[in-house]
Amino acid sequence: MLIRTLLTATSVLAMSIAPQAFAQNLRRPSAQSVEVHPDRTVTFRILAPQAKAVSLRGEIAENGPKLQKDDQGMWSVTIGPIKPDLYCYYFDVDGVRTLDPRNSIVRIQQPAPENLVDIPGDTPAIYAERDVPHGTVAMELYRATTLNRTRGLCVYLPPGYARSTATYPVLYLLHGAGGYEGSWWGSGRMNLIMDNLIADGKAVPMIVVMPNGHVQPLDSNRSAQSLNRIIAAFEADLLTDIIPFVERTYRVQPGRESRALAGLSMGGGQTVNVGLKHLELFAWFGPFSAAVHTMNFEEQFPELTASAAATNGKVKLLWIACGRDDALFAANSALDDALTRGGIRHTFVVSDGGHSWLNWRPYLAGFASQIFQTEKL
User: Fold this and answer.
1) Residue 311 contacts by C-beta under 8 Å, 6 or more apart in sequence?
2) Helix, strand or coil for residue 17?
3) DSSP conformation letters of 123-165
4) pLDDT category, 363, cuts 50, 70, 90?
5) 225 three-state secondary structure
6) Distance, CA of 45 to CA of 139 (rounded, Å)
7) Is 228 exposed, middle or buried (CB count within 10 Å of its CB: 0-12, 13-18, 19+)?
8) Looking at the domain 136-376, which fold is it?
9) Fold entry, domain 2-111
10) 263-284 per-position pLDDT tens digit
């Protein structure tokens, strides 16, 4: 599998995080480090004979259950049953954040990578690797003239792209703070989600472009001025270099109605703050758990609410989604209220859970199944 192949090498990061534990695991045989049982309980193990305390952390174990050590120095804990989904986890070994050295499936992110474990359900998940036609993910380099450097982006090409002469609409899909251009397919499994949606006839075949939203470092105080500066720099990169690069490199359909913009957290904030300023370029918008906590929509976008009818004529879909336990839920609710007061047509989806890939993967599926649909044009 492409994700496994490209990310396996990152497991060596565990050597720098906890070298003693890693070396011990190489020298001694051990049981499977993460084992999903038929009843959806999960056992986690790590060999660390010299450790004094080990706990499990991450999405799958927010309360940090402690592992118990046997007489061979193997630490283990069984939790669950766990609701089917794809979860991140890591170990805390004597206060040191430690990757599972025997699990090569790693989610790369800041401030540190984490392992992934899949808890299968009775039916295939939206991100499952099913026996359907698969698209490809290309890793591209382009010249960012506004930043004066070469940068990377990832591009999902739908099944059959290479054998076709057809043109396709484009979704520009943005990651969150701490992510990178590979986050949506490495952690989000967007390629498999899109493969499945297209195979089931729930989404039209489309190209998905995943740029790197970290154009400049954020000030340590995370000031509004710093955020605005970064948003402006990303806007220039997207409009001046990324979109032209994509449109001269791939077979894309021209025009605003063939372009969508969506993203999670920081990328959701960029979707709102950049996308809604450029209705001449985009018609479909998907802010997921959007980082809009520093914005005042009515002050920043007076032209959109001044002529709501004109705005509604241009915006084909504004699909906002956030978990009710998300720290950004209040800010997203405020955005929903402002849009409602302004008479701007939109959808606000409230789900369970918080600021997590457990929500963002379903949000992508929900949004992608609605964009570029003929009946909405």
Assistant:
1) 279, 304, 305, 344
2) helix
3) S--TT---SS---EEEEEEEEETTTTEEEEEEEEE-TTGGG--
4) very high
5) helix
6) 35
7) middle
8) Rossmann fold (3.40.50)
9) Immunoglobulin-like (2.60.40)
10) 999 999 999 999 999 999 999 9
